[in-house]
Design a protein that fits this description.
This protein is mainly alpha-helical and 71 residues long. It has helices spanning 3-11, 16-23, 27-35, 42-52, 66-70. It contains 5 helices and no strands.
Length: 71
């Protein structure tokens, strides 16, 4: 779970659908990103960061999720 991402989204008063729509991605994909199941590519990371106002490199500061690593 990317708790920090959920907190950013909630601070903006947005739901998954609203963020996804503004980023040009599906709600289900955004949900997987927030859960930590998927790591977005650079373009999507930049879009989400712009919408929620944080540094896009935050997605890449930690290790990949266990599910991604074991895939």
């Amino acid at each position: 779970m990317r708790k920090w991402l959920k907190e950013k989204r909630e601070a903006k008063g947005m739901n998954h659908e609203q963020v996804a729509l503004k980023c040009g991605i599906s709600r289900s994909y955004y949900t997987l990103i927030e859960k930590g199941t998927k790591t977005p590519g650079v373009k999507v990371a930049k879009n989400i960061a712009a919408v929620l106002e944080f540094e896009w490199t935050n997605f890449f500061n930690g290790k990949c999720s266990f599910k991604e690593h074991s895939a």
